[in-house]
């Protein structure tokens, strides 16, 4: 019965996410217009570049309403690498503006253009046209080979299975290899379906995965004895050997957190299949709901707020996560117990670091354990604390150690963060931003920012923590 239910849900999902013929026709006309314009611009330059469509649109694994169109301008390898971005941006801008589109400069490994043409977003990316993957000059040079490989390995049935897997991953929040998400890339999702054969088989196998124990080698590059070594040395929560580059792990960006979320969701879906895994129910969250959660919690929520400059998403999120860990370590170093942490970035680049603490205020004194009575360090300990204004009680002997009750350096986390934030291991731009402006909020003070688009939903979900696909099923047993 469960399998029948799963396949019925898959059919319903496919009906929602498979592009219609009219949608395909509309997008293909826009894409043709962009490509024709790129070819026209070639007449103005003495460079014999070629144009290639890559990514999910080229592979026909895209989802309805989410066309992911990537057009590569492939330049001869003899062009200097530092000129690639210059020529690519100039040609792309000229081509897009000729057909009335808008251009936005973006940055990954090097600059590219995100264009808006007739309501469609198209990424135009410069790369080198190399003969084989082992001759790549920039990382994006692999992408055409990825596209060609997937096209060579899939049919109409597998395209549908890939679409369903991508929608499932998006629904549970594990889709995207960017630093902000640290999840499954589209290419990785495609390879999993190619390897296991279907969406259902991917979930069945994933439900048995163990982090750092999964090794997938579709093209059988490695012998069994080599796999254990590669599991140890290759980065990532699992290893999926790139079929076009045996030295690369396609899953290197996947975190253990996101892998485990996928494992858990796969198990739950196989037990209790539901459309909610694919399409999370829309939430209506009133301010009162968040306020009530904060009041009932009995813990202290502390938020460090600043404003950071606009940067490439991977750069800024790398700095955010580094800084979040750095601030947590600073807080713990002064004996505050951190229960959970999180970070949220607004559209206006307001950055919120959130910490839930058992207590944001500690007693003004602390018990400090000194050296054993027989230690050679006793004299320096006694010299430091005898007559010190920070000594509240002692020094005295308890069992075999010298003890002192001393004044705590920081009794509130707010004072600690204001005075010592610069000692934390922070990203460069985060440190600069905190040095210019830092606001520390606690408890109900956070509520004044709930009007910021998306923050209310983020805070609510950060507080309740339970994934949406567990909430629905648990309700049946309450």
Summarize the structure.
This protein has helices spanning 2-17, 21-41, 55-59, 81-98, 143-153, 156-172, 186-196, 199-206, 224-233, 256-271, 287-297, 313-333, 378-385, 413-420, 428-436, 455-464, 468-475; strands at residues 50-54, 69-75, 102-107, 111-117, 120-128, 215-216, 239-242, 245-249, 300-307, 338-345, 350-357, 365-372, 391-398, 401-407, 439-442.
Number of helices: 17
Mean pLDDT: 92
Beta strand %:
15-25%
Poorly predicted residue ranges: 473-478
What structural class results from the helix and strand content?
Answer: alpha+beta
Kindly report the spatial arrangement of strands forming the biggest sheet. 1-2-5-4-3
User: What is the C-alpha radius of gyration, as a whole number of Å?
Assistant: 27 Å
Structure characterization notes:
It is a single chain. This protein is an alpha+beta fold and about 475 residues long. The chain is about 45% helix and about 20% strand. A hairpin with a 2-residue loop joins strand 7 (about 240) and strand 8 (about 245-250). The radius of gyration is 27 Å and the shape is globular. The chain starts with a helix and ends with a helix. The model is unreliable at about 475-478 (pLDDT under 50).
Task: Pick out its properties.
478 residues, alpha+beta, Beta Polymerase, domain 2, Poly(a)-polymerase, middle domain, Alpha-Beta Plaits, 4 domains, five-stranded mixed beta sheet, 20% strand, disordered C terminus
Chain-wise SSE layout:
Layout: H1 2-17, H2 21-41, E1 50-54, H3 55-59, E2 69-75, H4 81-98, E3 102-107, E4 111-117, E5 120-128, H5 143-153, H6 156-172, H7 186-196, H8 199-206, E6 215-216, H9 224-233, E7 239-242, E8 245-249, H10 256-271, H11 287-297, E9 300-307, H12 313-333, E10 338-345, E11 350-357, E12 365-372, H13 378-385, E13 391-398, E14 401-407, H14 413-420, H15 428-436, E15 439-442, H16 455-464, H17 468-475
Helix pairs in contact: 1-6, 2-4, 6-7, 7-8, 11-16, 12-15
